[in-house]
Amino acid sequence: MPVEWATTMMNLATAYSDRIRGDKAENIEAAIAAYQQVLQEVKRESLPTDYVRATRGLGRVLFEQARYSEAMAHMQAVLSTVEEMYEAAPTPTSRQSLLQELGDTPQRLAFALCRTDGADGSRQAVVVLEQNRARWLREALEMSSARPADVPTALWSAFQTQAQRVRELQAEAQLPDHTPGRRTFLALSALLTAARADLSAAVDAIRAVAPDFLPKPTFAQIQSAAQDGPLVYLLATAAGGLALIVHTNNVSADFADCAEDGGGSVEAVWLDGLTTTEISKILYDQEGEAGGRYLRGAAGGDHAALTATLAWALPLLGARLAQPLAERLAARYPQGTPVTLVAASNLGLLPLHAAPVMLAGRSVTLLDFFGVRYAPSATALRRHSATGHTSATVRRPTVVGVGNPLPAPATGRWAQQRVADLLPALAAIDADRHLLPLSDDLPADAAAPLQALRRLLLERWRALLRKLEALSTLPTEEMVRTGQLYQELLLLLSFLQAVETAPLAAQAAALAQRLPASLEAAEAEAYSVRDLVGRDNADLLFNHAATAAALWERLPTATWLHLACHGRFDVRQPLESALLLAEGTQITLRELLDPAHAAALQQVRLAFLSACQTAISDFRSAPEEVVGLPAALLQAGVPAVIGTLWPVNDRSTALLVNRFYELALHGDASLDLPPQPPLHALRLAQAWLREIDNDGLKRYLETHRSLSAAPAAAGDRMSGILYRDEQRRIRDALQRGQGHKHPYAEPYHWAPFVIYGVGQG
Question: Fewer Cβ in 10 A, N or C end of the chain?
């Protein structure tokens, strides 16, 4: 049957299934019948992509009607077909596109297995989820174009030959029937079946010597990754959510009576109400909704949208996910046990560790009771177990990193000229008339706050013009620290009305792009890290010296990596997400996956990425691949990575980082704490930042004079600037009677920090 007919029928089936929202029986049966008719004609061997889409659609309709047993057969067919196509795909990009075809099929299949097959279903569900997580990243590391080092040439040649044979036959099967030389459907089907069998045999032969090649982990291998605490697979579907707790082998089995599988190895915890619809409401803008703008804040930098969404989303996640999960974990594990979350359905984008729970009669966060860490997959954890790289703790870490990289001085000269060209047009704007003009007929209750906002905007406009005019006398090497001004200019331009702002905004955007805001507190943070580690064990690069080339040169000596710099997550091309360094250089995710660069990271046990947005992963094209900086570093050989989920406040970040290094390297004698493993050092630092008030911060800074005591050769130490700036803020707060106010209690300040991978708990 021609491809055009199949496409028409697919469109018809999809149209019917979209109308199921009205829950009319005739629409449901019409959708099922349409998909079944497509599958009578679209054969797996000749049109595998169309077959996958039709089968996936039919499985989705049946799943949403809770006809789980029927749905499972179709979902399993989707996975097996994609697996065959995946093994034959020629490039990492083509393999990644195939994984996109899966959609949320693995999550729905796992949910259905647990609903229908009890204990066996729970184990099978774990394997299904694991086998469809972060597969492509491992191959991206190897680039899949060269023979893996541990695979003999003969085996690799056989694999390449069989994969090419499958691709050729598949391409022929997709040709129109009348194409000269094209074999019959039956002949091609037989040839493809045989070729795929040969390809599977070649893959199995490679796996015998290289188990991580196109990995298909068993349940025993998955469970072995749960070393010092349980693994928890999390997912959401249209029917609800599910947590699958994979218990460790080395924990007593006296909990079997509470485990649904009877043996206690896997526990299914149903998360009622945690649907994909609810997750979308949190992540994305919703028409007619005030909330649901998490990604606008986390990926787009909209602070107001982020804080507003966190205010209602964290309690929702607490009630529907964290509370039922915490209750089951607390029944088996003591407080402080490391718990590793493998989060599907885009749940890994959210600060699940910050969700509130009620345990032992206390209202806490999940992080307060357990050592919460994240992982792209159990396979990634096992990789470090196999190499012995299971701990981020080292006795005397050697820290390599950067603090506040700056653009090249030439960029400063360019910016100075651009500002001079821009100023006449800005000065000609009548801000009194055009900056947020207000209608005379506004109600009094609406007019008052808008008038106050307008006065504030006018003050900021005039102050900004004065600052921009003063830049003409600023040394060009200092111009590279003025990036914040152009971000503020972009904001103010957005409030102008009846003024042609597009050309001005374009010039301001160009300035903001080439001159990111100078991270003064991040520079202070890096100096404090150097002091706490000790100069003999620290090699940190600052300002213009912090180039990508200089960092790569020093990395082979590092056991810890600390990056206090700007980060950029690229929504459209996640592999181009980057850490922004000095002189216009950067390190991209693509580079981290390049074996030539990954070799420089082999001694690094912990990477602390305090830059903005370093823990965001691809949430659009292939979210289950977890394509992001933490996963890339894990795959490149770093066993533990700390990253951030959104643009962070550089001052509160500097305080948290300082506290983390104190706890990790020295502990806290006043609390009778020895040096803490990174997992616990981070959670304790987060709790400290959340709970400390202005009075406590004043005492903390007074007893940590190292922040301001610079050696004579260091000049005006930036860590001293952090100390003085925070002291100034505290002094003002105390004068207003706010000694007991907790300035950094909001989740915005402490919740974005997450730890990925293994590491001693």
Answer: N
User: CA 274, 277, 278, 280 torsion: positive or negative?
Assistant: positive
DSSP string, 599-666: GGGTT--EEEE-STTTT-B--SS-GGG--BHHHHHHHHT-SEEEEESSPPPHHHHHHHHHHHHHHHHT
The span from the CA of 703 to the CA of 709, in Å, is 12
List, for residues 486-503, the tens digit of each pLDDT value.
Answer: 888 988 888 888 888 889
Q: Give the model confidence (pLDDT) of 213-223 as tens digits.
A: 766 788 888 88
Angle between helices 105-131 and 68-88 (to 10 degrees): 50
Q: Are 230 and 340 within 8 A, CB to CB?
A: yes
Split at pLDDT 50, 70, 90, the class of 389 is low
pLDDT at 325: 97
CB atoms near residue 466 (< 10 Å): 9
pLDDT at 4: 53
Alpha helices in 399-438 (DSSP H): 409-427, 431-434
Q: Is 617 among the domain residues?
A: no
pTM tops 0.85, yes or no:
no
Spatial distance between the Cα atoms of 587 and 605, rounded to a whole number of angstroms = 19
Using CA atoms, how far residue 415 sits from 429, 476, 572, 583, 611, in Å, is 21, 9, 28, 14, 24
The total of other beta-carbon atoms located within 10 Å of residue 540's CB is 22
Would residue 234 count as lying in a domain? yes
Are the C-beta atoms of residues 632 and 757 closer than 8 Å to each other? Answer: no
Q: Which of 303-307, 457-461, 571-575, 602-606 has the lowest mean pLDDT?
A: 571-575
* CATH number of 40's domain: 1.25.40.10
* H helix count then E strand count, the chain: 32, 16
Residues 369 and 241 in one domain: yes
User: Which structural domain, as residue segments, surrounds residue 446?
Assistant: 409-514
How would you label 250-284 residue by residue, b for 16+ Cβ within 10 Å and e otherwise? ebeeeeeeebbbeebbbbbbebeebbbebbebbbe
Does the CA dihedral 77-82-87-89 come out positive or negative?
Answer: positive
143 compared with 280, residue with greater pLDDT: 280
**Rounded mean pLDDT, 120-124:** 91
Specify if 93 maps to a domain: yes
Strands across the sheet with 586-588, in order? Answer: 566-568, 578-580, 586-588
Q: Do residues 515 and 483 lie in contact, with contact meaning Cβ atoms separated by under 8 Å? A: yes
Tokens for 630?
């933490």
On whether both 233 and 183 belong to a single domain, the answer is no
